[in-house]
Amino acid sequence: MDSLRRIEREVVDCRACPRLVQWRERVASEKVARFREWDYWARPVPGYGDPKARLLIVGLAPAAHGGNRTGRVFTGDRSGDFLFASLFRTGYASQSISTHRGDGLRLIDCFITAAVKCAPPQNKPTPSERDTCGPYLERELAALADVRVIVTLGQFGWDAITSHYRLRPKPRFGHGAEVVLPDDRTLLGSYHVSQQNTFTGVLTPVMLDAVFNRARDLA
Asked: What pTM, to 2 d.p., does this model score?
């Protein structure tokens, strides 16, 4: 049997995509002024959360100065602030703020991962990078045996899950879209928690809370 701990070890050691390795390490070296004192993680970022979770959240990839800096998915950036505030309101997180790996955050009945484990330039992995990283997501899906609902944040995560299940025709992504998967899990779509969406009102706290409340009902 595969285990989340084994997957995590292999993810952290991965150097399979030269462009992503170069980028994540370059970001950690050059940094930005506000994080100049940080010792960046600068490695692939594994999934995180409750190993017996019924809810799995799938994002796109770690942010260059978020997960790539802190070593925990969606931790230390504005997208994560928006996400964890919603998870706290809906009962999936012990606190509403996530700043670093030792901040005391605990996910409740929830596990978070990304379709691509390394921070990509311009937040855009290539198709080949997505496919190279795909087996890690597949192994997480298998190891998280209690998952009943998968919430994807954005089109990229939606495509990764629908490809994994080989759904034909591919269900159309949308906020609140809902699909019953072949193994009786349910796939829910949400707009991504990027600043491009949250600052413009494309995704509001009420909208995201509604997705997680629906996930709880289904789980």
From this structure: 0.97
Distance between CA atoms of residues 18 and 120, nearest Å: 11
Q: How far apart are CA 131 and CA 212, in angstroms?
A: 28
**182: pLDDT strictly greater than 90:** yes
Nearest CA among 1, 83, 12, 6 for reference residue 46: 12
Who contacts 211 (Cβ-Cβ below 8 Å, separation ≥6)? 151, 175, 176, 188, 190
* Mean of the per-residue pLDDT values of the chain: 97
Scanning 52-172, the segments in alpha helix (DSSP H) are 67-70, 78-89, 127-143, 155-164
pLDDT of residue 65: 97
The CATH label, of 1.20.210.10, 3.30.930.10, 3.40.470.10, 3.40.50.10420, for the domain at 4-38+45-218 is 3.40.470.10
Which pLDDT value is given to residue 2? Answer: 75
Amino acid at 186: T
The CA distances from residue 219 to 51, 56, 61, 72, 146, in Å, are 15, 11, 25, 25, 10
Q: Are residues 159 and 167 in contact, defined by beta-carbon separation less than 8 angstroms?
A: no
